[in-house]
Amino acid sequence: MRIAIVTDSFIPTFTGVTTSVCQVLDRLAATGHQAIVLCPGPAPSSYRGFPVRTVRGVGGLRLRGRTAELERQLTEFAPDVVHVASLLGLGTRGLTAADHLGIPSVAVFQTDLPGRLAHPSSKSLHRALSVAGMTLAPSTAAMQLLADSDVPRIGRWARGVDTAVFHPDRRAGELTRELRKCLAPNGETIVGYVGRLAPEKELHRLAELADLPGVSLAIVGGGRERDRLEQLIPRASFLGHRQGMELAGTYAAFDLFVHPGRHATFGQTVQEAMASSLPVVAPAAGGPLDIVRPGVTGLLFDPDRCGVLRETVGGLVADPAMRERMGHRARTNIEHRNWPAAVDELVGIYRQVSAPSYLRRVA
Q1: Which residue from 75, 127, 242, 306 puts its CA 20 to 30 A from 314's CA?
Q2: Over the stretch 159-171, which tens digit does the pLDDT of each residue have?
Q3: Closest residue by Cα to residue 193 from 158, 154, 223, 159
Q4: 6-19 per-position pLDDT tens digit
Q5: Are 84 and 95 in contact (CB under 8 A)?
């Protein structure tokens, strides 16, 4: 197939969207498909042998004027399907351009979409999604959010996880051993969080864990909440932003993983923790409902009950055998969600939305 990927984020800007797009391109290259990336600059001229074309940012007042460059690029490449990887300025323009040209399209849901759909200025986003061949949500909770916003033609596509990078074997690495010595000099149980330090992550809940006996709390990530959290949880270790092998080694240093926020539409860090053989504690809400099997790969807590996170984590801290058993099952259960399998599923969706019978139903 010929796939045009329109994204608001690409190399050298490393975000979750960039990671997802690169994983999709890696698999498309390995399986013989053709692709082009349309993104804002700066960007490399190619990736995995696929051309990368930069497109100017949103400008002007007329919708037609804002999509002309995209339409030219799409016309030259002649894709079978347009994959819109993010629904910001360039992404919504990509959907509009694909509709103008009669090209089937797939829109990928992002975590900031619920707030944007509810905003009074969201009419252009609603219009763009109304012409998408399918809008893909990463979880059943996200699908419900889209349905409640009257988005048509909703499908599910859960992200993959790099099970080679995020692997329990990292525990034997020097970085991980040194980090464990630093975080747990007296053999403490290391409870870790990875993600943006933002209000919607509800990281204030982690204060419940700060004085748990025998616990070392480690927080990985950056964001505007860091200063406030350092004051709220002074005994926690703030490790800053990490990525790649350094991040994988950091997961491997943890004994269990905590995801405190109830508003996640998916939970990529939950998958990364599970791939690293960590039991996960997460709220019984949002994306983790589809990922964590309570009592098998981790535990889900009631986010409306004060103190229940402390109680849940405390139970796992006191039971190393349970943590080991859950961590092993977590790795086993997540291995099928590797990126090649996820992208092969996505290619099946491309074929579905570009099939003549599907196009007739959409029309």
Answers
A1: 242
A2: 999 999 999 999 9
A3: 223
A4: 999 999 988 889 99
A5: yes
